[in-house]
């Protein structure tokens, strides 16, 4: 207990030292001023993500209310946010809460795949913008080239229509476990989702593109509040760098490296490091509020299910 207290006190002291070095007053003002704007942008993004998910579910013949989908998404993202598993936990949790069936799994994973595809496209554009801004630094160009290659490889993997698991299953033959065969069937359905309903894919794609623009708008909101001049290329570069940081630190609970990484990224692009810290702290405040809302919904949902089971038992003769 004493060690935990020492660690917490040390963390608070270091945090205060960082704020003192970069200037805490403008950043704290930006956090409180920018939080309502980022919450509004996040709410709009949640509505667009929910619409995309509902479109995928409808294509698979699954009906669900918008409020349920929003509650499930917030609770699943909250669980992934505070754990070391991230999407490995949040995606199965969404499927489980909505109804553990093949149709739900295919629709949910298709929605996630389209979102990641749109995110990867913005990542590539951001890398190009950052390359123009950091063309004078050789190390930065190499890092951006590697990051671009990662994004392009991810895009190719998502857009691939031919399943990846069947060759592995044929190689294993009789030794192939049942869960792998089951995964292969699910992958085949997922890969063919676009050909079965291309209209749904188009609608989901443009909704997810809108979500990426809203993420970029969060950066713009904090820069405007701090009265820092910026260009579109700067915003896209910061957005790409932020995606890279999320990929590298996604295994950390609550992405504890966000503040330092964001401050460093802003400084690398010639902006005030305090602005990066303000953006990271504002987003963290938003994320924690979303976690609280998601867990509140999950608690209500669990209580509602329990009461339904209790009433069902009482009705038995």
Care to describe what's here?
It is a single chain. The longest helix has 43 residues, at 273-315. With 317 residues, the protein is mostly helical. It is 84% helix and 0% strand. The protein has one domain (35-297). It starts with a helix and ends with a helix. The chain contains 13 helices and no strands. It is globular.
What is the total tally of β strands? 0
Give the H and E element order: HHHHHHHHHHHHH
Low-confidence segments: none
**Could you estimate the helical fraction of the residues in percent?**
over 70%
Number of helices: 13
Q: How much beta, percentage-wise?
A: under 5%
Describe the sheet with the most strands.
Answer: none
Number of domains: 1
Radius of gyration: 22 Å
Structural class: mainly alpha
End-to-end separation: 53 Å
What is the residue-averaged pLDDT?
A: 78
How does the overall form come out from the CA principal axes?
Answer: globular
């Amino acid at each position: 207990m004493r060690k935990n207290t020492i660690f917490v006190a040390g963390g608070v002291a270091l945090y205060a030292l960082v704020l003192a070095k970069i200037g805490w007053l403008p950043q704290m003002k930006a956090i409180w001023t920018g939080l309502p704007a980022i919450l509004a942008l996040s709410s709009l993004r949640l509505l667009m993500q929910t619409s995309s998910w509902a479109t995928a579910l409808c294509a698979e013949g699954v009906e669900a209310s918008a409020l349920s989908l929003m509650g499930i998404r917030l609770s699943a993202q909250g669980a992934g946010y505070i754990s070391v598993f991230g999407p490995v936990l949040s995606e199965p949790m969404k499927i489980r809460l909505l109804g553990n069936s093949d149709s739900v799994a295919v629709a949910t994973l298709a929605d996630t795949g389209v979102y990641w595809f749109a995110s990867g496209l913005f990542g590539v554009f951001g890398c190009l913008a950052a390359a123009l801004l950091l063309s004078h630094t050789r190390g930065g160009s190499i890092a951006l080239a590697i990051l671009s290659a990662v994004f392009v490889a991810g895009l190719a993997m998502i857009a691939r229509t031919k399943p990846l698991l069947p060759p592995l299953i044929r190689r294993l033959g009789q030794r192939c476990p049942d869960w792998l065969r089951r995964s292969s069937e699910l992958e085949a359905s997922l890969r063919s989702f676009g050909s079965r309903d291309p209209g749904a894919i188009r609608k989901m794609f443009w909704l997810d593109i809108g979500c990426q623009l809203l993420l970029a708008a969060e950066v713009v909101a904090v820069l405007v509040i701090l009265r820092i001049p910026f260009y579109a290329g700067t915003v896209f570069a910061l957005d790409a760098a932020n995606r890279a940081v999320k990929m590298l630190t996604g295994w950390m609970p609550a992405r504890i490296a966000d503040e330092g990484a964001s401050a460093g990224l802003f400084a690398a692009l010639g902006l005030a490091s305090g602005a990066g810290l303000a953006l990271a702290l504002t987003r963290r405040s938003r994320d924690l509020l979303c976690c609280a809302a998601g867990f509140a919904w999950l608690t209500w949902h669990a209580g509602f299910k329990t009461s339904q089971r209790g009433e069902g038992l009482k009705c038995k003769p």
